[in-house]
Design brief:
- This protein is an alpha/beta fold and 476 residues long.
- The chain has 3 domains: 83 residues, Sandwich (Immunoglobulin-like), CATH 2.60.40.10; 257 residues, Rossmann fold; 97 residues, Sandwich (Immunoglobulin-like).
- The protein is built from 10 helices and 21 strands.
- The strands form 4 sheets. Strands 2, 4, 5, 7, 8, 9, 10, 11, 12 and 13 form a 10-stranded mixed beta sheet that branches. Strands 14-15-19-18 form a 4-stranded antiparallel beta sheet, with no helix packed on it. It has a 4-stranded antiparallel beta sheet with strand order 17-16-20-21, with no helix packed on it.
- 46% of the residues are buried.
Amino acid sequence: MRPKLLFSLLLVILCATSQAEVRLHTTFGSHMVLQQRSALVLHGTATPARSVEVRCSWLPDDLAATAAADGTWRIALDTPEATFEPQWIEVRETNTIRLDDVLIGEVWLCSGQSNMEMPMRGFPSQPVEGAAAEIAAAMKYGGLRLFTVGRACAETPQRECTGLWSRTTPGQVARFSAVAYLFGRRLTEALDVPVGLIVASYGGSRIESWMDAETIARFDPEDYIAHADKPYRDPCKLYNGMIEPLTGYPVRGVVWLQGESNRRNAHVYAPMLRELMALWRRKRSQPELPFIVCQIAPCPYNGEGRLGGARLVEAQIEAVRADRNAWMVGTSDIGDERLIHYPDKNTVAERVFYSALVNVYGVEGLPVSGPAVSHVDYAEGRAIVHFDHAERGLNPLNAPLAGFELAGADGIFHPATARVGALRSTVEVSSAEVPAPCALRYAFADWHRIDLYNYAGLPAFPYRSDSTDYGAAQPK
């Protein structure tokens, strides 16, 4: 019986092996956009020890590799300059896979939680402004391609994810991230190259979910929830299921819109964001991978009274300032007092687009940032607030400005009167309740709506000069 059993097992193995077919990783498909002038590693699975051959329309010679014992194979190739001319790729083993309508251009990864995930058609009873017109015009942008990574929580790093590249049909755009689409649509128009957008987002997620086990281990477990109320909030699970599988697909940059779910541990958000950016760069072997970080928009956050949203924004600004390849996009003027999912996705996408043009593509003639407080002088019962990124002046002139507060030696803040100063790059602030001010806050509140801009209409960033520590008071 033993020889017969052995023969049967060998027969099963041989049959399974003979039926194996070459497969490509999920991220490679027809209608995709490949990052121009990049070192691409095409990869997938095939019959172990069998040769896999690859032909590309832009390469003169065929390429080949032998599948490893576990069936995986990898073939390195270079991509050409951007072109709207459709390319093709053929992969052959016992079967043949052909990818058609492949474009070469710029690829961006867009990630975060629900304000990134929010589709163009909006959430139930939560619309996106101007959505119908954008959806109706979707077919105009034939060079813009979309890929949404399927939601996935995983205990260990995964090779595969779910998703499918698509053209910009009205139906696809309606279901695609509004911020990502509106950013990509502008980018393909301005650069006149194809643009591919990969969205990996999950509503309600925390930053801890988007880091690997090695990275999260650098933080005190007291500063995050190891086993949250939802699996997608557990550390590492979204990274394992939705980001690790993407590391073999070259991208030009990352747009990050996340933070609302980290209001209660905002005191560690800045180092966590720095570690996340370092991790994603390291995994991609792109040490200077650009990150455009979107400020979370103002919202009352269900009446939370501990300035969780304000501290989170402060942490975002701190992390970005410490990173020479990261930039911040302001949203202090587009929040909604009733909705955490603010309807104005167009404005934040436009500002992401400006940041990408200036900071990533080197386009001149646009501002690099909204106004940011550089320092504050106190004299004669008032504060003089100096701003960076206000070379051509602040506005509005001759009008009161909202959001400024002053405090004296007692540390109690009072609403203050503020106007653009004579130098036009400063703001003069005073309060009858604070005759001798020594501390200033600007828009440092969960809910606020600012009205201070630079010449390009970019909003000023929140600020505070005091160093009150709220971290220890925050419950899990």
